[in-house]
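Translate structure to sequence.
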């Protein structure tokens, strides 16, 4: 399958590398020029569960991608939420009427943007529990196991989803079909809505936060706000399952030592965060449904304050 990875950061690099190693024709598209130059010069360098590997995968700046002759069967979206529209516009000439688009972005509501560029029936929403980290331009660290849940948006288009699942599973990405992807997306958003913002503000990894005496109270309050908003939209969530998933991430033998993507963006790389598309969405929907969201509101404001203090634009 001819696959574009739109957004070749930590997670995009993981998926692209694993799909490439499964003999799919993978092309990276990104906007970080140092990262692009390093991969073009020395290949994508990865610590893959302790093994040092290098893979030569084509990568292009999104502002130059229109120059290449390529027609994608599948686009997997891994941009930051605020970069999605610009990325899709940049690669629009590489899309055709049968191109499938799988959105694995953090956050909620991205299908409204994607539909401007591909038919609704070609859109798949998903979430992934894989993890990855950027160690510098062209260098990533891939560790632990994960999975991908996805679902077609178009009615009667499950076959499209199954084709994508097959391609992902050829690469060992543990994909499975979800009959209610919005529940899965909200469940993942609960994990991001706790670990991302809290670890970023508190300057700690996941395991360190899990050791604190306040973790249980804080996590419960934030998850309650997400569940209240989901209930207002008739999206079923199981609180016990969500809490178990969050607390399982504290494990030092799995991803406990991981610093979440928001921490990597803001604290390490001084980039704007996706807080408005995670906790910020809950705040906006809370205003819409007249539901109080004090924890999400405060966390969103703290992250934006940190962005200002660091001079991030």
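Result:
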């Amino acid at each position: 399958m001819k696959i574009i990875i739109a957004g070749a950061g930590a997670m995009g690099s993981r998926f692209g590398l694993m799909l490439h190693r499964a003999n799919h024709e993978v092309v990276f598209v990104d906007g970080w020029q140092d990262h692009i130059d390093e991969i073009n010069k020395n290949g994508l360098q990865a610590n893959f569960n302790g093994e040092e590997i290098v893979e030569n995968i084509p990568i292009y700046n999104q502002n130059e991608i229109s120059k290449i002759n390529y027609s994608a069967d599948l686009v997997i979206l891994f941009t930051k939420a605020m970069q999605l529209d610009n990325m899709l516009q940049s690669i629009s000439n590489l899309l055709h009427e049968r191109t499938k688009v799988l959105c694995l972005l953090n956050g909620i509501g991205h299908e409204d943007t994607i539909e401007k560029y591909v038919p609704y029936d070609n859109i798949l929403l998903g979430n992934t529990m894989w993890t990855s980290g950027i160690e510098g331009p062209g260098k990533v660290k891939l560790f632990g196991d994960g999975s991908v849940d996805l679902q077609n948006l178009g009615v009667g288009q499950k076959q499209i989803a199954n084709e994508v699942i097959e391609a992902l599973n050829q690469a060992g990405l543990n994909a499975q079909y979800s009959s209610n992807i919005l529940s899965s997306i909200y469940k993942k958003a609960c994990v991001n809505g706790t670990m991302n913002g809290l670890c970023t503000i508190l300057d700690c990894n996941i395991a360190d936060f899990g050791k604190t005496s306040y973790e249980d109270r804080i996590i419960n309050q934030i998850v309650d706000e997400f569940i209240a908003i989901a209930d207002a939209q008739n999206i079923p969530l199981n609180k016990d399952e969500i809490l178990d998933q969050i607390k399982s991430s504290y494990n030092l033998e799995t991803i406990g030592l991981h610093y979440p993507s928001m921490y990597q963006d803001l604290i390490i790389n001084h980039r704007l965060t996706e807080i408005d598309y995670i906790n910020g969405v809950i705040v906006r929907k809370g205003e819409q449904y007249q539901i109080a969201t004090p924890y999400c509101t405060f966390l969103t404001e703290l992250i934006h304050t940190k962005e200002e203090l660091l001079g991030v634009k």
